[in-house]
Structure formats: structure tokens, C-alpha cells
Write a structure and sequence with these properties.
By secondary structure, the protein is α+β, with helices and mostly antiparallel strands. Helices cover about 35% and strands about 15% of the residues. The strands form 2 sheets. It has a 3-stranded antiparallel sheet with strand order 3-4-5, with helices on one face. This is Alternative ribosome rescue aminoacyl-tRNA hydrolase ArfB.
Length: about 140
């Protein structure tokens, strides 16, 4: 069971975990041990609350397919159990990131004093640059 928040959790049957062979440098055990994890989670058929589903389906992330399936591949570690934990953590982080509400931006304009300071700074910089010219006697 994966705990998303105090009220929301995912059952084990909702998350499909498959062991796959990890890429990278090998050794004696290369192409024999399936240490990487391939995680698949179907948003539409899950038991998540509807607000979670809506936000996840509207969330722009390369892990979410057009069909509403989250696919995460984890092969950072050398053991399957650590990769499984990493994949589940990344799934939880993705779900929580989709639930963050962005603060709406209100357009503001600079004050008269701020505009005056900006122009004064520009004039001062321009004067400094003008003094760098050649000195004629």
C-alpha cells in the first residue's frame, strides 16, 4: 500500500511493478539479473478521488501517456528492492506535484518612484561610460 496523504492511499493491485534488465555497465552478471523496475499506474481505473484524477490527467509530464497511464522506469540502484522503493517514491511525488495549486498572477506596474530610480541609474551608467572615452589635450 502506497500512502499519498492521510486520507488517500493506493492499493498494491493498482500499481503494476515489473522487473526488467537494467542498462549500463555489466560484468559477470550482465543480462542475467532483472534489477530495474518498470512501474505502470492507470489513472482512470484507479481508486484515487476524482479531483486527483482530473489534476493528473491535465498535468503535463512526460511520464503520463495520452491514455492516462503513468510509466516510470527506475534503474538507479543495483538492487531491485531499492529501485522499487525509488519508483514508488517518484509516483507519489508525481501525484503530489499534480495537486499543487499554482498561485494566480496579478499584473502590477512599477511605481513612479521605481521608474524614476531606474532612469537615474541608467543616466549614471551612461555618464560613467561616456567618461571612458579618449582624453584629448
Amino acid at each position: 500500500m502506497l500512502e499519498i496523504s492521510n486520507a488517500v492511499s493506493l492499493a498494491d493491485w493498482e500499481i503494476e511493478l515489473t522487473g526488467i534488465r537494467a542498462t549500463g555497465k555489466g560484468g559477470q552478471r550482465v543480462n542475467k539479473v532483472e534489477t530495474a523496475i518498470h512501474l505502470r499506474f492507470d489513472i482512470k481505473s484507479s481508486t484515487l478521488p476524482s479531483i486527483y484524477k482530473e489534476r493528473l490527467l491535465g498535468f503535463k509530464d512526460h511520464h503520463i501517456t495520452a491514455e492516462g497511464i503513468i510509466i516510470i522506469k527506475s534503474n538507479s540502484f543495483r538492487t531491485q528492492s531499492l529501485n522499487k522503493d525509488d519508483a514508488l517514491k517518484r509516483l507519489k511525488d508525481l501525484i503530489l506535484a499534480a495537486m499543487v495549486v499554482q498561485k494566480t498572477r496579478r499584473a502590477t506596474k512599477p511605481s513612479r518612484n521605481a521608474k524614476k530610480k531606474r532612469v537615474d541609474e541608467k543616466k549614471k551608467r551612461g555618464n560613467n561610460k561616456a567618461l571612458r572615452g579618449k582624453v584629448s589635450f
